[in-house]
Design goal:
- The protein is mainly beta and 150 residues long.
- The chain has a single domain, classed as PPM-type phosphatase domain (Phosphatase 2c, domain 1, 4-Layer Sandwich), CATH 3.60.40.
- Helices cover 14% and strands 40% of the residues.
- The protein has three helices and ten strands; from the N terminus they run αβββββαβββββα.
- The strands form four sheets. A three-stranded antiparallel β-sheet has the order 2-3-9, with no helix packed on it. It has a three-stranded antiparallel β-sheet with strand order 5-4-10. A two-stranded antiparallel ribbon has the order 1-8.
- The longest helix has 9 residues.
Length: 150
């Protein structure tokens, strides 16, 4: 039984994101998958450069890719009543269909990649970029758990 089949059999539908940075001589390579992000800080902490982009349904390039692959972007809202009788509208994050993810690229998350005819909607292909750097102070990497708070 393959690893994919074993995960499906157990009912584990979880997934994850990933980010990898490799610096060699004066070239920085960044590979990103999902809602992770890397930021380069340079010039004695005075400049910040986002070197990857999040794979979220709000990203226009990802929206175009998803729609062309036969998927959809949706957002849920709910109306609740407060204790003092007023109505409150709660708006959820943008999500991808098929599935219910608020990210457009992931590994795992098998439920979002079924049925097979829509397997190109939520994909597991990272974006890989490279660029030259002269100097930098550090590179900060994190997932949405970090960046959604900053």
């Amino acid at each position: 039984m393959t690893a994919d089949a074993e995960w499906k059999k157990k009912g584990d539908n979880s997934g994850s994101c990933a980010i990898v940075i490799f610096v060699h001589n004066n070239v920085c390579y960044a590979a990103n998958l999902g809602d992770s992000r890397a930021v380069l800080v340079s010039e004695q902490f005075s400049k910040c450069y986002q070197i990857t982009k999040d794979h979220k349904p709000s990203n226009p390039d990802e929206q175009k890719r998803i729609i062309e692959a036969g998927g959809k972007i949706y957002q849920t809202t709910a109306v609740t009543e407060t204790s003092d009788g007023f109505s409150d509208i709660i708006t959820g994050p943008l999500r991808v269909f098929p599935g219910r993810l608020s990210t457009t690229r992931t590994f795992g998350d098998y439920e979002a990649k079924e049925p097979k005819e829509n397997s190109n909607v939520v994909i597991n292909e990272p974006e890989i970029t490279s660029f030259e750097i002269d100097s930098h102070d550090f590179i900060l990497m994190g997932s949405d758990g970090l960046w959604d708070k900053f």
